[in-house]
Design brief:
By secondary structure, this protein is an all-alpha fold. The chain has a domain of 84 residues: Tetratricopeptide repeat domain (Serine Threonine Protein Phosphatase 5, Tetratricopeptide repeat, Alpha Horseshoe), CATH 1.25.40.10. It is 82% helix and 0% strand. It has 24 helices and no strands. α15 runs antiparallel to α16. The protein is elongated and about 90 Å long. It is found in: Cytoplasm, Cytoskeleton. Oligomeric complex composed of two heavy chains and two light chains.
């Protein structure tokens, strides 16, 4: 039901009785501490969760032999908290302790061993080490394939996890392949209104959203919502997530009024269902802030980003990557407002956190360098802009597969600097590199592909080759007209450019 205050009330009453009745190192007392920790964990209060999990663990360590499965369970809970706190090295440390115990205590094809491999894979995924993530998720999957029936829901979860890594790698066809394998199992194994089936629809919708196929994305996200409406109470956090995801598709489409409508439904539920300092509430405020930023309403954007930041500063440790993301978003608003010193200040705050929290080749670190580069570009400091864009590009080249959309964006950014410098040949060279990746990685009507056509067209216009410019700009317009709402700013901008080029011809 998600009534955490009630759950806490009863667990604490139970705990008081146990404290009075049992010796301080009794295993039942450890279970009681653990239960309280679970509630705090679900509330997003990770420091409190850690406090109670560690109390539970101290008792368990004294009471049980070092290879006991309950000790592994205890380490696992602590690892999960550290992972959510963004402390990935600590998370790995505890998950590896779990794995050692399970490797000694259990047969090699035991599902609990698969769960351990899966958890370690998840940390590597969060760290941006996708090859390691795949390695551990595949180890997990091999065990599940041997140990479980072919329609077991855990096997579907395993396919989902592998799909998620491919999605993060930008390999959307592979992601879709694994998400669909998961979905087939869920359809056979679960009743039609089961939340896991809804999650499966949501995952498939998310890939279509990344591919720019917004009608397909909406179709699957709405199936997810339909199930959750039937299966869950109206103020359940998972229902809020569904509204949020549909909002995300409309946001990507540039339909900001629709995006706001769904993001606000998400916020309404999240405020009722979760405590006021829960990280999910921060995400809700953040998404609304993002829409206002896209709409050019910067005061509203700052208001909502500020609300998100306040919650995150209270709820998460000061070096958590989510905090960096919010500093980054505020920096983006100031950059759009032309307040470059403020933008630089927030981007630097974000970057300092990411440098400490993430491995040096993490894609988010590259994005951070790219944002600082953007400020320098907008300030007209082209050499500094190139310096930061190239730092970003080096990371993307190491961290991502060669056809990842982020690598295309990176080439595009470098091209844009040369474009601003009036070096149109160099700009074209980088715009075309970007375009080649997008042609391979994205469907033919993806808005990002239109950006490539638009930028190549602008570079040809700069060179005075207006017939070439017109061809590329018209292709950009054609894609945007199919994929974006008719009042989207990109359509207006490219239409004006086409008029300008035609006059020049």
């Amino acid at each position: 039901m998600g009534d955490y205050s009630k759950a806490l009330e009863f667990y604490e009453k139970s705990h008081q009785i146990l404290e009075n009745a049992l010796p301080s190192n009794h295993p039942n007392l450890a279970s009681s501490y653990n239960n309280i920790g679970v509630v705090y964990y679900n509330m997003g209060d990770y420091s409190k969760a850690l406090e109670f999990y560690e109390k539970s663990h101290k008792i368990t360590e004294k009471a049980l032999p070092p290879n006991h499965p309950s000790l592994a369970f205890s380490y696992n809970n602590i690892g999960a908290v550290y992972n959510n706190m963004g402390n990935y090295s600590k998370a790995l440390e505890f998950y590896e302790k779990v794995l050692k115990i399970r490797e000694k205590a259990l047969p090699s094809n035991h599902p609990d061993l698969a769960a351990s491999y899966n958890n370690i894979g998840q940390v590597y995924d969060d760290m941006g080490d996708y090859s390691k993530a795949l390695e551990f998720h595949e180890k997990s999957h091999q065990i599940y394939e041997k140990a479980l029936s072919p329609n077991h829901p855990l096997l579907a979860t395993s396919y989902n996890n592998i799909g998620q890594v491919y999605n993060n790698m930008g390999d959307y066809s592979k992601a879709l392949e694994f998400y669909e394998k998961a979905h087939k199992i869920y359809e056979k194994a679960l009743p039609p209104n089961h939340p896991s089936l809804a999650l499966s629809y949501n995952n498939i919708g998310g890939v279509y959203n990344n591919m720019g196929d917004y009608t397909k994305a909406l179709e699957f996200c709405e199936k997810d919502l339909e199930i959750k409406k039937k299966a869950l109470p109206p103020n359940h956090p998972l229902l809020a997530t569904s509204y949020n995801n549909i909002g995300g598709v409309y946001d990507a489409m540039g339909d900001y009024s629709k995006a706001l409508e769904f993001y606000e439904k998400d916020l309404e539920i999240t405020k009722k269902a979760l405590p006021s300092n829960h990280p999910n509430l921060a995400s809700s405020y953040n998404n609304i802030g993002g829409v206002y930023k896209s709409m050019g309403d910067y005061s509203k954007a700052l208001e909502f980003y500020g609300k998100a930041l306040k919650i995150t500063e209270k709820a998460l440790p000061s070096n958590h990557p989510h905090l960096a993301a919010f500093y980054n978003n505020i920096g983006g608003v100031y950059n759009n407002m032309g307040d470059y010193s403020k933008a630089h200040e927030f981007y630097e705050k974000s970057h300092q956190i990411l440098e400490k929290a993430l491995p040096p080749n993490h894609p988010n670190l590259a994005i951070s360098y790219g944002n600082i580069g953007q400020v320098y570009k907008d300030m007209g400091d082209h050499s500094k802009a190139l310096e930061f864009y190239e730092k970003a590009h080096k990371i993307f080249e190491k961290a991502l597969p060669p056809n990842h959309p982020s690598l295309a964006s990176s080439y595009n950014n470098i091209g844009a600097v040369y474009d601003s410098m009036g070096d149109y040949s160099k700009a074209l060279e980088f715009y075309e590199k970007s375009h080649k990746i997008r042609e391979k990685a994205l469907p033919s009507n993806h808005p990002s592909l239109a950006i490539s056509y638009n930028n190549i067209g602008m570079a040809y216009s700069g060179k005075g080759d207006y017939s070439k410019a017109l061809s590329f700009l018209e292709t950009a317009l054609s894609i945007w007209q199919k994929s974006l709402p008719p009042n989207h700013p990109n359509i207006k901008t490219v239409t004006n450019l086409i008029d300008y080029v035609k006059k020049k011809m």
